[in-house]
Structure prediction request, 999 residues.
Amino acid sequence: MLTALATVVLLSSWQSIASGEVHEFDEGRRLAAQRIFLAGTELLRDQQAASTRAAIERFTAALEEWRALGDRAREAETLHALALAHASLTRNREAIANAEQAAAIRRELGDRRGEAASLDAAGFAYEAVSDLPKARERFESALALYRSEGDRIGEARQLVGIGAVLHRMAKNKEALECLELAHQVDLETGNRAGEVLTLRWIGNAWLGAGDRRKALEISQTALELARETGDRFEQGLLLNNIAVIFGYEGQWEKSIELFEEAAAVHAEGGRQAEEANALLNIGVAWAQLGDHRRAISFFERALPISRALGDRGRELPLLIYLGASNREIGDTDAALKYLKAGLELSRQLGLRRLEAIALNHYAMVLYNAHRFEEALEHHELILRMNRETGNVRGEVNALANIGATLGSMGRCGAARARVVEGLALARQLGDRPFEGATLAALARLDREEGQLADALEHANAALEIAESLRGTMSAQQIRAAFLSSVRDQYELQVDLWMQMHLRAPDAGFDALALQASERARARGLLEMLEEARAGIRDGADPALLARERDIRKLLNDKAAAQTRLLSSRPKPEQTAALAREIEELTGQMHQLELEVRASNPRYRALVEPATPSVEEIQQLLDEDTVFVEYALGDPRSYAWVVRRGSLRSFVLPRRDAIDALARRVHALLSARPGAKSEVEPALAELSKIVLRPIAQELRARRVVFAAEGALQYVPFAALLAPSSRAPLIARHEIVTIPSAATLALLRRGEDRTPPEKTLLVLADSVFSSDDPRLERAAAVSPRSSSSSKTRGETAAAAELRESLERMQRLPFTRLEADSIAQFVPAASRKKALDFDASRETAVGDEARRYRIVHFATHAVLNSQHPELSGIVLSLFDRNGRPQDGFVRLHDVYRLRLPADLVVLSACQTALGKEIKGEGLIGLTRGFMHAGVPRVVASLWKVDDRATAELMRRFYEGMLGPRKLPPAAALRAAQLDMSKTAMWKQPYYWAGFLLQGEWR
Prediction:
């Protein structure tokens, strides 16, 4: 609104100057001043930071000349232009000073229209620094002037300005009255462009009043009108506003989709500032969902745009949210760096609302450091600031944080008063996510005071909200991210049931706790397995499937280009540009997946997979099998041991203690064998925590573990059996599963027709152009000479590049293929070696003919985009031409494999992106989705030669004379290796585990 009005005023003044009016002063000096001023106006039109700074220099020079010439009218015009220029660079204090001076001079000269325009500019600058009373005063003064001049369009714009200020002051009823007057003027004057603007603010005011339905209705009407008038700028702003409304409703999927559309509209129009704002909002949405690494990627895309524009106002929230998300992922140093910069900038710019947000995240850093008094002081200040600026949602958040801090200090009564106050406000706003969070906060306070029944009531109410919000989402990545963001509420429910069990051990509360744990575990995987078995894709719109195939091919091409680029030590801007393209294509692919689901009636008929009861879990077991499920939490963790006829539960230490030790064990085991004195004590300590309490219940040949958190990185086979120095595998077969519910779904697919042949092995692929198997080296090798991280390189790019640098030929995989193939008759096996060990072989019909598919090759891990993690097969054809040799996770999801077993004899194939509650998003779940009930995969970068030997022994046990089931065969192979002097260290044999079905 400021820009549109200001442009009109400036243009009229330029025309006046250019007309050559003659005054009594020196004509040469006057013409020089005119040229300087006009040069400034041309630079200001460019709307780029550098041009705007240059414009300010020109205006400042022209101002000196007009003052020297005593030309007050031109002095006022130039001051007004300076105000607009400073405002566009978020130098709002300078803008206020210039606009106020311009208005005062114009008042002296009797230039009522000019005075109104300068008051308008001052009003917007005051609003930008959150001085809302002064902003309102200036708009009201300008309104009176426009009315006295009969300027209806100017009148409408001031009414909108006043309405916007009233909205920010949380006086939405008054705001709506003012905005409706403006809308009436727009209709009377036929000003359709002005009507779009007014309707946008009416939508904002209805949102502020808590009527989201009305806000959405008005905003969508404005969007239709903007499309009719072809106003792409307003379309982008309205798409953004509508996305915000869906975000308030907890409909993050729709919200992100609209933010992405807004970003595309602004990018198309070259409006970089607004594009950066949309990227910021996408990042905030992902942060709200708990996927902070993805959020950071969007913030990092937007930050250089804002800095290049010199847009400090938009740089500020990016600094704040970068600080917040880095805090969430545990990078305290980065968090403090960004938050301190954000606090300093918010104070420089006088932006109180954003200062409050920065302070909030800074206070959370203090809270996490147990500096509760300081955190409380900051949160109380934040509460006052939010009330001063009319930020009701910020007020709710501050009240919740004050309650949490007081609760941690043992002041539960005072904490409860604050949380109850916040709950009332959240309900008044109709803000369901905040209502759920405050209900969970109340439940924690109830727990602290021993009121377990009340706590459970509040916790259950919070989870009802969470489940209802999750039910509005279709995209799996968004559903998983959302569940991660409310994971603590599920953990709270588990803890409350278990605390009730400790009070009444015979009441069956531990069974309810286990069921609650299952409800919160691997939900995304369960739903995907359900979809796969329902054949969702089979009845989808063919046109959508074709578009999806095109996007996936393009995504694979870009990922392959990234592979080639990273092998050549590229410039940071090259990798960043390609990463952005991959990010955008990934988003398009997920959107098409959504449309494919929505287009199929079978998807709408699906119901949420049922959470199994203890009795149903027991039916999955046989007499030789015991099931152990871990639930890590704060302030304590739990384990349940289920046998055919019993359930026992155990209290374990809090999550952070177990996670820290589990990560240490993984680090020690996955390193090349070192000092025995380091590995064994760590194994003994972790075994003491997670195995010793349940020792008496492990009286079975087979133990099936459902782990979570860092325990997913631990090979339970290598842990020490209770009361023994021997590894657990010496006494038991070890199997891992994501959850009992996952096993139940896998078993539902067991009635399929088995393939007619036994074994397909893909091994000894061709990875580099200097491989002697190539007749000529016609391509660039995907290897590099250094493994150090390059300047400006993202963590994901470094991860991929380092994988590529290790991608040398694996000669022992050929030996591995030969040694395992010997156990299968020639007619029932195929060894796909050299160039035949290709992507085409893996994803084609050939692989569907075998019961066992074995990959002996490299793998790459992409924690930023897990769908791009995958298996690497031959990267060159027989003629030395580069080819796509990657079988990525999103390719695996499209496979339909009737195989009984897939063996991923490669590095880190059991790993993936960790999402709280969902587990590790990686290749194992991809093959389960493809229809494979059991997968053997690795937890670390395995040794080539040792792996070949382990696999030979594994297949000998499985396909040799003993015909052992896969779990028993893997145990026998690992035990043999552990008793061999050369391979006895767990590094060589413990990295592989069997996941899924054991029968």
Notes: The two ends are 69 Å apart (CA to CA). The chain has five domains: 1-128, 351-517, 542-605, 614-743, 755-783+793-996. Residues 614-743 form a domain with the Nucleotidyltransferase; domain 5 fold (CATH 3.30.420).
